[in-house]
């Protein structure tokens, strides 16, 4: 029998709590839900707030079927907020907003990664943050990504912009920048400019084009996720990997000191201690006092 629980006055059916989702660690669906409810909720909800959510669903674990959706999943409760946002051909379509703990637990019960755009639901295509997705091509690793992240931090600082880092939860690193609102097209153009500069200054380390033949041993600086239609893994989301890795905020000191890829792999069980020690390292992204204008 599917257990029913009440979250903030909403009745939720939480299914298959004993199902092992991550065989490498034996992590069950119940433990995944506990992570979201007891560890990540406060920080994660702040980063999900007012941002249309795209879901990567993996209900049978990372080795099972995965499917990505922007549309509200079938059976979405009537009390889950839906935002009408632009899609292709000037059409509007609904996307879920995760605004409270009840909505978060409903979504987490579907077994999802949370992905969000760089803009908020009431200002589609007007970015309030910028992201660089640093993706290493083997044999390069996150260690090489750290070197590129430090170059970006200093280059952004030269333009008066503040930068913050998080792991992708996969093999790379994300560099994020809080912005005064600007069109996604402007942000994308500026991000591409910096990616090209990074390749020019670090030609043995960086590539700014997606062409796979160019990427072995280098870090691809992906600026494309600043396009209005693109999304990035939300801070604190679990990822569909062999282990329950988290897209985890990291301090610049950790990036500076990284000598091994394992040093920047964080699992769900690591996050309570990190939040207690550091708080939300990406809190500045949602602090309007940290936002700066594009140059």
UniProtKB/TrEMBL annotation:
Class of enzymatic activity (EC top level): ligase
Pfam families recorded: LigD_Prim-Pol
Gene Ontology MF annotations: DNA ligase (ATP) activity
EC numbers: 6.5.1.1
InterPro entries referenced in this protein's UniProt entry, alphabetically: LigD_pol_dom, MtLigD_Pol-like, NHEJ_LigD
UniProt keyword annotations, A-Z: Ligase
Residues covered by the DNA ligase D polymerase domain: 28-281
Cross-referenced NCBIfam families: ligD_pol (TIGR02778)
Protein name listed in UniProt: Non-homologous end-joining DNA ligase
């Amino acid at each position: 029998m599917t257990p029913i629980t009440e979250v903030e006055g909403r009745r939720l059916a939480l299914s298959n709590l004993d199902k092992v989702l991550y065989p490498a660690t034996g992590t069950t669906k119940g433990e995944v839900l506990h992570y979201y409810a007891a560890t990540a909720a406060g920080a994660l909800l702040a980063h999900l707030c007012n941002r249309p959510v795209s879901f990567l669903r993996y209900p049978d674990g990372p080795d099972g079927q995965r499917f990505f959706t922007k549309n509200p999943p079938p059976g979405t409760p009537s009390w889950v907020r839906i935002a009408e946002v632009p899609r292709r051909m000037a059409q509007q379509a609904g996307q879920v907003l995760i605004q409270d703990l009840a909505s978060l637990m409903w979504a987490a019960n579907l077994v999802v990664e949370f992905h969000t755009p760089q803009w908020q639901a009431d200002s589609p295509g007007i970015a309030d943050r910028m992201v660089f997705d640093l993706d290493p091509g083997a044999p390069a690793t996150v260690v090489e990504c750290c070197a590129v992240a430090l170059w970006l931090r200093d280059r952004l600082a030269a333009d008066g912009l503040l930068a913050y880092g998080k792991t992708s939860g996969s093999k790379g690193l994300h560099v994020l920048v809080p912005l005064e609102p600007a069109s996604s097209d402007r942000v994308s153009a500026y991000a591409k400019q910096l990616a090209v500069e990074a390749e020019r200054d670090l030609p043995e380390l960086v590539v700014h084009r997606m062409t796979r033949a160019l990427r072995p041993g280098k870090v691809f600086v992906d600026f494309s996720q600043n396009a209005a239609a693109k999304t990035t893994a939300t801070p604190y989301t679990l990822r569909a990997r062999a282990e329950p890795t988290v897209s985890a905020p990291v301090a610049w000191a950790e990036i500076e000191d990284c000598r091994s890829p394992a040093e920047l792999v964080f699992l769900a069980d690591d996050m309570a201690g990190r939040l207690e020690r550091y708080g939300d390292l990406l809190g500045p992204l949602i602090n309007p006092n940290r936002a700066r204008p594009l140059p």
